[in-house]
Write a structure and sequence with these properties.
- By secondary structure, the chain is an all-alpha fold.
- It has a domain of 88 residues: Serine Threonine Protein Phosphatase 5, Tetratricopeptide repeat (Alpha Horseshoe).
- Helices cover 79% and strands 0% of the residues.
- The chain is globular and about 65 Å long.
Length: 311
């Protein structure tokens, strides 16, 4: 009976977590949620004007909520994102800044003890920090981007922290299963990459390198040293070295990444095309023209295939 109760609890939490992933909002039928979902659907179709109208309606509706309601921050960041997609960066930054202020107020509420509610709170914050990073980077607001990336890393590291001992209580077990099912290690690596990219954009290579290295180590442990996520991390680190003119360090990392990709079903993905294109530049710098041309042809083939699939 105890095992059945535990499994039933786990299924319930998983269901709530998936709902949170889908909307980043409490699972309830209200006009705010309808507006958010309409905006999400329009944005997914590239109908940004329609998405903006829906998100503005959600923001307007949220004015009726209590001050610390996280839905205020969610509506604002979604509005900011769709403004960014329309290249209206000043409006995007203004809305993102308002969202962060609203989130700060929402986070003053005590962390709920219920695992699914606590997960929702953390994921809401992470989603907002993630989108704010992209908005600030697009506007050249690197200090602001750095700040939100560090907050994102803190959330991801906390979520991925393993129990000090083997799970003994129901809550410990649910947390452990949540970590497995929601790829907490991958999210940590993604967060490291985001901050590294902020530093890379500013040519702060010394600050970016340890973050890319940490991301690589996390991905190797979480997925395996010969798996595509590790290859992507190798490519990122190689690109960092290439940007510094350290071609002797970049070349073997690109070569290793390509070998991994060739052994998997990833050879039709844009990450592989990026790697091959960058690798070809390094090979050309080393005077290996024939190999460079071969890599570039492979990249072109992937790009052409991707373009066809998008039509």
């Amino acid at each position: 009976m105890m095992k059945y109760k535990l499994w039933a609890m786990l299924i319930g939490v998983i269901g709530q977590l998936l709902l949170c992933f889908a909307s980043f909002a409490p699972a309830q039928s209200d006009q705010w949620l309808v507006s958010i979902q309409a905006g999400d659907a329009a944005e997914a179709q590239g109908q940004y004007a329609d998405a903006e109208r829906a998100y503005r309606e959600a923001v307007k509706l949220s004015e009726k909520f209590r001050e610390r309601d996280p839905r205020i921050a969610v509506g604002l960041i979604k509005l900011a994102e769709v403004c960014r997609r329309q290249s209206r960066h000043d409006e995007a930054v203004a809305s993102a800044t308002r969202s962060l202020r609203a989130l700060e107020k929402a986070m003053e509420e005590p962390t709920p003890k219920d695992p699914s509610a606590a997960y929702y709170k953390a994921e809401t914050s992470a989603m907002i920090f993630d989108k704010a990073d992209g908005i600030f980077v697009a506007a050249g607001k690197y200090l602001e981007a750095e700040s939100v990336c560090k907050k994102l890393i803190a959330i991801r590291e906390q979520a991925a922290r393993p129990p000090k001992t083997s799970p003994k209580s129901n809550d410990d077990f649910l947390k452990f299963m949540g970590q497995v099912l929601t790829d907490t290690q991958g999210k940590v690596a993604d967060a490291y990459d985001k901050l590294a990219q902020v530093y890379f954009a500013q040519r702060k290579f010394e600050e970016a390198e340890p973050l890319y290295t940490k991301s690589l180590r996390v991905r190797e442990v979480a997925y395996g040293q010969d798996k595509p996520p590790a290859a992507v991390a190798l490519s990122n680190l190689a690109t960092l070295y290439a940007a510094q003119g350290r071609f002797e360090k970049a070349e073997p990392l690109y070569a290793h990444a390509v070998r991994i990709f060739q052994q998997t079903d990833w050879m039709d993905k844009p990450e592989v095309a990026n790697t091959l294109e960058n690798y070809s530049l390094v090979l050309r710098k080393s005077g290996r023209e024939a190999e460079a041309a071969e890599m570039l042809e492979k990249a072109k083939a992937i790009r052409a295939k991707l373009q066809q699939s998008n039509h």
